[in-house]
Specification:
By secondary structure, the protein is an alpha/beta fold. Helix content is 37%, strand content 15%. It has 2 domains: 158 residues, Aspartate Aminotransferase, domain 1 (Alpha-Beta Complex); 243 residues, Type I PLP-dependent aspartate aminotransferase-like (Major domain) (Aspartate Aminotransferase, domain 2, 3-Layer(aba) Sandwich).
Length: 422
């Protein structure tokens, strides 16, 4: 442990995680570059676990925030009406909801993704009068108790200290192999009175699973899931916390399938700047809340509303960002497939969409972590995911340049060679 990190080891809880993988005191950041206290630069393929889709300290957002602060704009507002909140709602309506034909209401929850999931599960149960929820294998929905119950990973579930109830777990798309449609089991269990599965209030799903290992649900699978739930009066919740806000190409990851969810959870990159903010999108008939039935001290983060509006107006008024992501996605996929082809003995599997990709290695489940460690010594921050941390996870900023993307991929190649030589 370096002297610079001594105070963290001495005073911070053992629960700290990322600092163990990336043991540097970071001081500054811009775009896709992090800078340590010692002045060393690191290329960022992590983007704050998907929070920084537009890069670090985007000057478009910084300028808007500074101007707002300098005029003494409201910072904390609970759920009171403010000019910053009004401007964000109007921008979201104009640039996100209306172009997609969505009539959803907006609920501003506490500032984390888990807060949004908790609210979504609660309102689904209130709207239907039923308690059970269907969730899927390898899902990650947050670590507060209700969200944790819907999360699959045993490492996180084991920290709960209590039983996690009112969830039925079923296999995600591809879990039983490419030739098995896992929704056959869902439909059979819902329609069989002897299955022991109570009719759920909702099904919660990620169109692309992030922490679960970059697993992508096909458009056909999501379309069938929507049909199954709609036919039975079950609400469909799409968790877009990591895969949304342009991460997989379109604003929402579910857009490719053409479905319309009943409830959508949004967080991470919605503020643009990295400031905490979360939303729940509700179809009007699902919005059965009584006033004050779900509150939170920090559901009115007006600084986040300011930068969120700036992000929408600067990146979603035209197709430039989406077109750029498509081009860089093709580059990233091509390079990863080439790495897999060059190392056939490792059985690499490439999966993902947009700028959310994984390089999975079941043959050596420790390899991804070793590559990540080697990459960090070479100036690249990249994390792992999956139930066994067997997936090297590519999550660069959507605004990253092609040169930076290629530079990072070259480091991954070097790090793979070094990890195999260990």
């Amino acid at each position: 442990m370096s002297d610079a990190l001594e105070v963290f080891d001495r005073r911070e809880s053992e629960v700290r995680g990322y600092v163990r993988a990336f043991p540097v005191v970071f001081d500054r950041a811009v775009g896709s570059t992090l800078v340590g206290e010692d002045g060393r630069e690191y290329l960022d393929f992590f983007a704050g676990a998907g929070v920084l889709n537009y890069g670090h300290n985007n000057p478009l957002f910084t300028r808007a925030l500074v101007e707002y602060l300098e005029r003494d704009g409201i910072i904390h507002g609970l759920d009171m009406a403010t000019s910053a909140k009004k401007a964000f709602i109007e921008a979201f309506e104009r640039l996100v909801l209306e172009p997609r034909g969505l009539d959803h209401k907006l609920q501003f929850t506490g500032p984390t993704g888990a807060n949004a999931v908790e609210a979504a599960l609660k309102v689904a149960r209130q709207a239907t009068g039923r308690t059970n929820v269907i969730a899927f294998t390898n899902a990650f929905h947050g670590l507060s108790i209700g969200a944790l119950a819907a999360t699959g990973n045993s490492h996180y579930r084991g920290a709960a200290g209590i039983t996690l109830d009112n969830i039925t777990r079923l296999p995600y798309d591809g879990y039983l192999g490419a030739d098995v449609d896992t929704l056959d089991l869902l439909e059979k269990m819902l329609d069989d009175p002897g299955s022991g599965v109570d009719l759920p209030s909702a099904v919660i799903v990620e169109a692309v699973q992030g922490e679960g290992g970059i697993n992508v649900a096909s458009a056909a699978w999501l379309q069938r899931l929507r049909a199954i739930t709609a036919e039975r009066g079950i609400l469909l919740i799409l968790d877009e916390i990591q895969a949304g806000v342009g991460r997989t190409g379109a604003f929402f990851a579910f857009e490719e399938s053409g479905i319309v969810p009943d409830i959508v959870t949004v967080s991470k990159s919605i503020s643009g700047s990295g400031l905490p903010m979360s939303l729940v999108l509700l179809r009007p008939e699902v919005d059965v809340w009584k006033p004050g039935a779900h509150t939170g001290t920090f559901r009115g983060n007006n600084l986040a509303f300011v930068s969120a509006r700036a992000a929408l107006e600067n990146y979603w008024a035209d197709t430039a960002l989406v077109d750029g992501v498509a081009a860089k996605s093709a580059l990233l996929r091509g390079e990863l497939e080439q790495i897999a082809a060059e190392n056939p003995e490792l059985g690499f599997v490439v999966r993902g969409r947009g700028l959310m990709y994984g390089l999975a290695c079941d043959a050596d489940r420790g390899l991804a972590a070793r590559i990540s460690k080697q990459a960090f010594t070479r100036g690249l921050v990249i994390e792992t995911s999956g139930a066994h941390d067997e997936v090297l996870k590519f999550l660069p900023a959507l605004t990253i340049s092609e040169d930076e993307l290629l530079k990072g991929l070259a480091i991954v190649r070097e790090s793979l060679a070094a990890a195999l030589a260990e």
